[in-house]
Q: What sequence folds into this?
């Protein structure tokens, strides 16, 4: 049975689309991604010609410099990376909003089966076998088969694989059977729905609320609040969208639908003057709302989804904006990611709520790939001009070092890149270019190249990309060994998790954070939605200990530089102390801090 051990990961960059990518393009990329995913299930491997063709086409569509919907089938076919049959499918989508082949595959592989294929250790071949021999169609069936010890007798499986699968289900939080959607899947659907709803003539404004607005890593259902003059025409248009596959409930002001991916969406339409109250209510969390209601009751008011109201006079005290409602309760507006009843109301009452990081305060991005990495999709020049346009005063280019089998870069190419950066530095007088790389942390904590060569970089990220299944003691030792290297500035995506798909490596966080402090190594907050790594508990503990953090995008395409907004929101949810975030520091301070470990060695 295949496991994660030793297998370098594939790029997961497709999931966190940036807003710079147009709607149509995004939809087509998503359709191609799904075609690749379902075709892999159909053909029993993710390495087949057809799967690759869809993946290549997805990248080609992403890289197009014209709008995809202006292209004729003949023009599409001429685009490098798009073959004839894929071009036809794209045209089919542009004309009809659906792809026949995709619909057939969806019927053959319902969401339950797709979810199975995302369990670590279950490749397309295994899913096929489980379906054919044991009738396993979803996670629940898988749990049943594991409990009955039926899987160990299948060819290609054994007792060990049963144990691994059980552990994976527990660590992914899938053992309870509650179906939740990873934030990276929910966010593009939410953003697209909100954009389309906003364009409807009756609509004043629309926003996603619920756990997604609070930045939960998995989403039970989407909650969208719409301020509009009438609900019925909004609902009519919504149910007609190709994205919507089933209507669950339709009332006067509430609509619940299922989207293609099996994600439930609850839409409420309210009068524009009720928007604040409705957003507050439907953003939650429930526990936060209950605390607010108690504060309201102490004043003889009630708080519901329509308004903050005086109980005696039945007159609204506030309802138009969230700010007005909080203010009436003597509270500052509390950002949604903090609304989890983890002390935010008490802190706000004391006037001691966290000082949130504003996106435009970020001074640099410190984990960025170019086409030099096998999986990077934007050229250096493009990356530099986009980063500079964001107003960054420093930037680290960090392509993969050589040990990452598929995507790694040999020494000579990195030296050429360094020379190139030195040459183009003068074109970016306001942005210091740091030459860095992303080192791979091997199973024993070994790193790429040799120490002298590593010390030649201005900035090194070190990260785990394989051997995700080792025992805790070994994982901990491995990461700490990397931290002890004088060239390593930061540990990238600490746990290596892919939310909903791959659990993080098992680490002794106390030991790791203690070593971070002792070795003056930062911990990365990786802003990619599929990762959001380090996890909240780690970041909260890092705050208590005063560990230095950096917020980076791990961009493999210029559009992904925009992921910084997710990183900043994740930092807020983790109550990150902005004074400990190194890429908020002014350039001189940052650059001198980045060099301290190297200097300490020289002394
Ligand atoms: P989810 O969907 O499981 O990821 O989590 P939420 O927080 O989005 O929960 P959901 O969709 O059931 O409800 C959305 C918000 O509506 C929730 O965060 C708070 C509010 N809400 C729902 N039901 C209740 C309730 O019974 N009492 C109160 N106070 N608020 C509620
Ligand atoms: Ca929800
Ligand atoms: Ca809901």
A:
């Amino acid at each position: 049975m295949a496991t994660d051990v030793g297998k370098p990961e594939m790029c997961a960059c497709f999931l966190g689309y940036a807003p710079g990518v147009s709607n149509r393009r995004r939809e087509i990329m998503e359709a191609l991604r799904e075609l690749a995913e379902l075709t892999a299930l159909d053909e029993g491997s993710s390495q087949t010609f057809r799967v690759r063709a869809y993946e290549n086409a997805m990248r080609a569509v992403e890289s197009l410099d014209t709008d995809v919907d202006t292209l004729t089938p003949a023009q599409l076919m001429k685009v490098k990376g798009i073959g004839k049959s894929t071009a036809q499918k794209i045209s089919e989508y542009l004309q009809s909003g659906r792809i026949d082949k995709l619909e057939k595959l969806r019927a053959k592989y319902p969401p339950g089966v797709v979810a199975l294929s995302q369990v670590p250790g279950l490749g397309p071949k295994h899913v096929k076998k489980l379906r054919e021999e044991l009738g396993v169609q979803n996670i629940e069936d898988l749990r049943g088969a594991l409990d009955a010890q039926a899987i160990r007798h299948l060819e290609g499986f054994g007792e060990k694989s049963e144990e691994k699968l059980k552990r994976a289900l527990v660590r992914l939080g899938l053992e309870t059977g509650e179906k939740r959607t990873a934030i990276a899947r929910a966010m593009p659907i939410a953003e697209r729905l909100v954009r389309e709803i906003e364009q409807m003539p009756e609509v004043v404004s629309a926003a996603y609320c619920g756990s997604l607005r609070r930045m939960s890593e998995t989403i039970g259902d989407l909650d969208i609040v719409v301020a509009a003059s009438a609900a019925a025409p909004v609902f009519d248009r919504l149910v007609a969208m190709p994205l919507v596959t089933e209507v669950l409930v339709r009332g006067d002001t509430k609509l619940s639908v299922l989207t293609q991916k099996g994600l439930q969406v609850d839409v409420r339409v309210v009068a524009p003057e009720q928007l604040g109250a409705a957003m507050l209510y439907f953003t939650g969390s429930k526990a936060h709302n209950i605390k607010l209601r108690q504060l309201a009751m102490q004043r003889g008011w009630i708080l519901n989804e329509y308004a903050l109201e005086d109980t005696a006079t039945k007159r609204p005290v506030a309802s138009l904006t969230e700010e007005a409602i909080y203010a009436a309760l003597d509270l500052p507006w509390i950002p949604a990611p903090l609304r989890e009843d983890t002390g935010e109301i008490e802190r706000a009452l004391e006037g001691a709520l966290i000082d949130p990081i504003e996106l435009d305060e970020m001074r640099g991005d410190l984990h960025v790939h170019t086409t030099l990495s096998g999986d990077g999709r934007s050229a250096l020049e493009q990356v530099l001009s986009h980063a500079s346009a964001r107003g960054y005063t420093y930037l680290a280019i960090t392509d993969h070092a050589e040990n990452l089998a598929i995507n790694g870069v040999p020494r000579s190419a990195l030296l050429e890149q360094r020379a190139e950066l030195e040459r183009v530095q003068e074109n970016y007088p306001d942005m210091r270019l740091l030459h860095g790389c992303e080192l791979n942390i091997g199973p024993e904590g070994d790193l790429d190249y040799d120490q002298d060569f590593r010390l030649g970089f201005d900035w090194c990220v070190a990260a785990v990309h394989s051997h995700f299944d080792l025992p805790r003691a070994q994982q901990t030792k491995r990461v700490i060994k990397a931290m002890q290297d004088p060239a390593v500035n930061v540990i990238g995506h600490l746990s290596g998790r892919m939310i909903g798909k791959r659990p993080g490596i098992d680490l002794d966080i106390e030991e790791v954070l203690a070593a971070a402090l002792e070795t003056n190594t930062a911990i990365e907050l990786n802003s990619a939605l599929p990762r959001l790594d380090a996890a909240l508990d780690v970041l909260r503990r890092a705050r208590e200990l005063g560990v230095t953090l950096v917020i980076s995008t791990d961009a493999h395409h210029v559009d992904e530089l925009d992921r910084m907004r997710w990183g900043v929101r994740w930092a807020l949810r983790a109550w990150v102390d902005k004074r400990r975030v190194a890429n908020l520091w002014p350039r001189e301070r940052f650059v001198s801090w980045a060099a301290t470990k190297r200097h300490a060695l020289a002394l």
Notes: The CA atoms of residues 546 and 580 lie 7 Å apart. The chain has four domains: 23-153, 181-270, 276-349, 359-601. Residues 23-153 form a domain with the DNA polymerase; domain 1 fold (CATH 1.10.150.110). Residues 210, 221, 223, 266 surround calcium ion (ligand 3) (CB under 6 Å).
